[in-house]
Structure formats: structure tokens, C-alpha cells
């Protein structure tokens, strides 16, 4: 009987061990420190900064890729796509621009920063978010999984993103910041900060109230769009059909 009790206690201790060994998830609030105009017709899917210049990809019926003037929100240059394509995330790596599409199962490649068309490539999954760590392309597909790919789109590895030990779905726009992956969670005001080696969510960023109610209309959609300027360390957020883009800092809750 004593041996049975010992085994039972031992097994129970193993089952609860992860609850105590799990790293605490930090909670932050996004605080706007500066705001800029944002084209309210931009259904933002991808946002990034390269060499101090902001770029944005937009979806819906009039998908575009834009070179954007930060101070005004105006497009300095714009690529328009056929209405059959629903453009999603975008990123530049090693002199080429990569642009995902949602359900079209293709990826567009352009020279960068010239923005001259290079090719249209087959893509096996739904395209959602796209970023890079400077070596690999890092992509989401709306699930809890994030894929690491070569520039030739060969998957080298993947991670399942977990929050408090449970898979976190609807990962959308991505940005790589200081060794971590930031991800918008679609339909929410939440951004998660992910350890790319484990898939564990280390921090949650509450972005509720970033766009005030007075600036919202019936066309205002969800938070989506994270851009990081490596040179300045500044982080920018916006959303689909938002009239503003915000420079933010994190405040621990």
C-alpha cells in the first residue's frame, strides 16, 4: 500500500510540474508616444521599415504594396495587384521583396528597393504574416504555427506558439524585434512576443484603446501592423483602415 501511495504521489508531482516550471508571461500595455497620419483606405496586412523607410502591404479588393512617407502617410510609390489577389504580409531580405497572398497560393518577388517584378512563386499554405531574422523568412498561416523558410521557400523548421501551455491560433502580422517574434493575434487588440526557439509566448501586449473611439468609424477594422526601426529602436503600430499610425513604448502592467 505504501509503495502504491508513493507511486501515485510521484506521478501526480510529474503531472503538475509544468505548471510550476512554466515561465511567467509578462503583461504590457502599449502606450502611444507619437502619432502619424495613416491612409484610412489601407487594409493593412504587412508593415516594415528598411533603411529608415516604411513599407506597407494592403489587402482586400484593391491589394497594394506601398512605399510610405511616415510623416504624412502618403504613398511615395505604389504597386497595384489584380483584384483576384488578396495581398498579405511582406518583407525585404537580401535585395528582394517577398509578398504573400492569402488563399491564392502564390508569393510575389520583386527586386528591392527598386520594386521591379522578378517572379511569381507557388506557395503551399495560406499567406498571413511575414518577417525575417535577417537569415530566414518567417511566416504565419493563421494557425498556431510559425514557419522558418529559406529565400527559395523551403521550410527548414517550424514552431507551435503556445500561451500558458496552450496553442495560440490566429497569428497574423509578424515582426522580428531584438531576437523575438512579435505577432498580432487576429480579431483582438493583443500582440504576443514569442521565443523563436521554443514557441512559448513570453509577453502579452495589450493594445486596447490605442486608437480612440472618436477616430473610429463603421469601416475601422482590427489592429494589424507592426514595424520596427532597427536604427532608432522605435516600434510602430497601426490597424486595418485606421486613420493613425502610432509610435509606441511598452509599460509593464
Features:
253 residues; 8-stranded mixed β-sheet; 4-stranded antiparallel β-sheet; globular; Neuraminidase
Task: Provide the fold topology.
Blueprint: H1 2-21, E1 26-37, E2 44-50, E3 53-58, E4 64-68, E5 75-80, E6 87-93, E7 96-101, E8 106-111, E9 117-122, E10 130-132, E11 137-140, E12 145-149, E13 155-160, E14 162-163, E15 166-167, E16 171-177, E17 180-185, E18 190-194, E19 201-206, E20 223-229, E21 234-239, E22 244-252
Parallel strand pairs: 1-19
Antiparallel strand pairs: 1-22, 2-3, 3-4, 4-5, 6-7, 7-8, 8-9, 10-11, 11-12, 12-13, 14-15, 16-17, 17-18, 18-19, 20-21, 21-22
How do the helices and strands follow one another from N- to C-terminus? HEEEEEEEEEEEEEEEEEEEEEE
* Percent helix range: under 10%
Strand order of the largest sheet: 16-17-18-19-1-22-21-20
**Tally of separate helices:** 1
Overall morphology: globular
Instruction: Tell me what portion of residues adopts beta-strand conformation.
Output: over 45%
Kindly report the CATH topology.
Neuraminidase
Query: How many structurally independent domains?
Result: 1
Report on the architecture of this protein:
The protein has one helix spanning 2-21, and strands at residues 26-37, 44-50, 53-58, 64-68, 75-80, 87-93, 96-101, 106-111, 117-122, 130-132, 137-140, 145-149, 155-160, 162-163, 166-167, 171-177, 180-185, 190-194, 201-206, 223-229, 234-239, 244-252. The protein is mainly beta and 253 residues long. It has a single domain (25-252), classed as Neuraminidase, CATH 2.120.10. An 8-stranded mixed sheet has the order 16-17-18-19-1-22-21-20, with no helix packed on it. Strands 2-3-4-5 form a 4-stranded antiparallel sheet, with no helix packed on it. A 4-stranded antiparallel sheet has the order 6-7-8-9, with no helix packed on it. Strand 8 (106-111) and strand 9 (117-122) form a beta hairpin. The longest helix has 20 residues, at 2-21.
Amino acid at each position: 500500500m505504501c509503495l502504491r501511495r508513493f507511486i501515485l504521489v510521484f506521478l501526480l508531482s510529474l503531472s503538475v510540474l509544468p505548471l510550476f516550471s512554466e515561465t511567467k508571461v509578462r503583461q504590457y500595455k502599449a502606450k502611444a508616444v507619437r502619432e502619424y497620419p495613416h491612409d484610412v483606405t489601407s487594409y493593412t496586412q504587412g508593415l516594415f521599415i528598411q533603411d529608415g523607410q516604411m513599407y506597407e502591404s494592403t489587402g482586400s479588393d484593391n491589394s497594394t504594396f506601398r512605399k510610405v512617407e511616415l510623416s504624412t502617410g502618403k504613398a511615395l510609390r505604389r504597386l497595384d495587384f489584380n483584384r483576384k489577389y488578396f495581398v498579405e504580409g511582406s518583407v525585404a531580405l537580401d535585395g528582394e521583396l517577398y509578398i504573400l497572398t492569402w488563399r491564392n497560393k502564390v508569393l510575389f518577388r520583386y527586386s528591392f528597393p527598386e520594386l521591379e517584378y522578378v517572379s511569381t512563386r507557388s506557395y503551399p499554405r495560406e499567406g498571413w504574416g511575414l518577417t525575417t531574422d535577417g537569415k530566414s523568412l518567417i511566416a504565419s498561416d493563421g494557425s498556431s504555427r510559425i514557419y522558418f523558410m529559406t529565400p527559395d521557400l523551403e521550410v527548414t523548421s517550424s514552431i507551435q506558439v503556445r500561451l500558458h501551455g496552450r496553442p495560440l491560433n490566429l497569428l497574423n502580422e509578424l515582426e522580428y524585434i531584438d531576437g523575438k517574434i512579435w505577432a498580432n493575434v487576429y480579431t483582438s487588440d493583443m500582440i504576443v512576443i514569442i521565443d523563436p526557439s521554443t514557441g512559448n509566448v513570453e509577453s502579452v501586449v495589450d493594445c486596447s484603446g490605442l486608437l480612440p473611439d472618436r477616430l473610429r468609424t463603421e469601416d475601422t477594422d482590427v489592429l494589424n501592423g507592426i514595424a520596427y526601426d532597427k536604427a532608432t529602436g522605435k516600434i510602430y503600430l497601426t490597424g486595418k483602415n485606421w486613420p493613425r499610425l502610432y509610435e509606441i513604448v511598452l509599460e509593464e502592467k
